[in-house]
Write a structure and sequence with these properties.
CATH class: Alpha Beta
CATH topology: TIM Barrel
Strand order of the largest sheet: 1-2-3-4-5-6-7-8
Subunit structure: Homodimer.
Radius of gyration: 18 Å
Number of domains: 1
Order of helices and strands: EHEHEHEHHEHEHEHEH
Organism: Pseudozyma antarctica
EC number: 5.3.1.1
Number of helices: 9
CATH architecture: Alpha-Beta Barrel
Number of strands: 8
Largest sheet: 8 strands, parallel, barrel
CATH superfamily: Aldolase class I
Enzyme class: isomerase
Strand content: 5-15%
Structural class: alpha/beta
Keywords: Gluconeogenesis, Glycolysis, Isomerase
Helix content: 40-55%
């Protein structure tokens, strides 16, 4: 299966990174909850929607969501691989679970570049996340830029997928076979560049990743096609999802969606409207 199926729920979320302070976080979440409440009746498909604030505001955002009885789901930006211990400054996956976190982002290119996070680190964190009943959101992407972006050969696609698979396989192998996982794909070579990856490129790579996952894992154990969703984690704008929907199940947004209306508009694009 190489394109999204009706049984995989669309998924869209936004990370605040370290751009928001406490008042801005509260304002953003309140406005997003209000806008989403108004938009929900018009959405065509049931869609999972999440926000990822910083650690300090996780509990307060959880309270905002709960008080409003909003369908928004809560995410966290990182986690330690152990539930307890002498790890000063780290955050326990058990604590995140107790706060109400659903998705935990790991392996972001910034974490790898600035903090030396390795594929082994990501795998250990993914196992801890899954073992605490949450879903690892694993950021993946190739560092090397293919030479022929507009005319990718089968070998070119295979090389990109192989590079990404080295980031994915250790995590899958360390997780329970019935656990859900989300991959957020973005080519590292395209981050912050004037020439981003084209929609056609994204579709080719994400469809190939889906084929690789289904070939190696679906049917061999408890994993199913539905247990792995793929998001595009690059810069997004109006109309992007329609161009890449054959390869991905949704979008993982950054600064573009730091305005609540832009976030809600993207949700409408992904879920469709009646």
């Amino acid at each position: 299966m190489s394109s999204p199926s009706s049984s995989r729920r669309p998924l869209v979320g936004v990370s605040f990174k370290m751009y928001f302070d406490v008042p801005k976080t509260r304002e953003y979440v309140d406005e997003s909850i209000s806008l989403l409440s108004s938009a929900l009746p018009s959405l065509s498909k049931p869609t999972d929607i999440f926000v990822i604030p910083d650690f300090v505001t996780l509990s307060s955002v959880a309270s905002q969501i709960s008080s409003a009885q909003s369908p928004l789901l809560l995410g966290a930006q990182d986690v330690h691989s152990q539930d307890f211990g002498a790890f000063t400054g780290e955050v326990s996956p058990k604590v995140l679970s107790q706060v109400g976190v659903k998705f935990v982002e790991i392996g972001h290119a910034e974490r790898r570049r600035y903090f030396g996070e390795t594929d082994e680190d990501v795998a250990n964190k993914a196992a801890a996340i899954a073992n605490n009943g949450m879903v690892p959101l694993i950021c993946i992407g190739e560092v090397s830029r293919p030479r022929n972006l507009d005319e990718l050969s089968i070998d070119d696609v295979d090389a990109v997928v192989e590079e990404c698979w080295r980031q994915i396989r250790p995590a899958l192998e360390g997780m329970p076979s019935d656990a859900e996982v989300v991959l957020a794909y973005e080519p590292v070579w395209a981050i912050g560049k004037a020439e981003p990856a084209s929609p056609e490129y994204v579709v080719k790579i994400t469809k190939a990743l889906r084929r690789r996952y289904n070939k190696e894992y679906v049917g061999a154990d408890k994993r199913t096609d539905e247990s792995m969703r793929i998001l595009y984690g690059g810069s997004a704008g109006p109309g992007l999802f329609a161009k890449i929907s054959q390869g991905v199940d949704g979008l993982f947004l950054g600064r573009f969606a730091h305005k609540p209306q832009a976030f809600i508009d993207t949700i409408k694009e992904i879920a469709g409207t009646n």
